[in-house]
Amino acid sequence: MSKKTGKPGYAPACRNKFVKGVCELPKVKCGECPNQAFIAFDDAAVVGHLTGRHVMGVYPLLDDETCWFLAVDFDKSTWTEDVGAFVETCRRAGLPVATERSRCRFSTNRGSRGTRSSSTTN
Question: 0.90 exceeded by the pTM?
């Protein structure tokens, strides 16, 4: 919940998002929609994310709406260039950064290995 507006600042996954005749985005925001059908965060959702069927994110916001860490997955064919750009951007901003090469067999880009980069600040 945003302290500034009193409204939610993100939109959970909804089964009705962009369904014609049901979803009225962008006219009606997800948090105000009478046709909300939010998808549960359960084992099936996690498996779907790990097998590349959909994307999930975590937004670890503090009470003041700031964030102390960020984890990013790079798994497209340009992942090496993308990781390099991310690391360089963090360093220029004075943020600590670390990278980790994944060995996940569920990579969405067959044959490539993804890499995760993390940045933290305090």
Answer: no
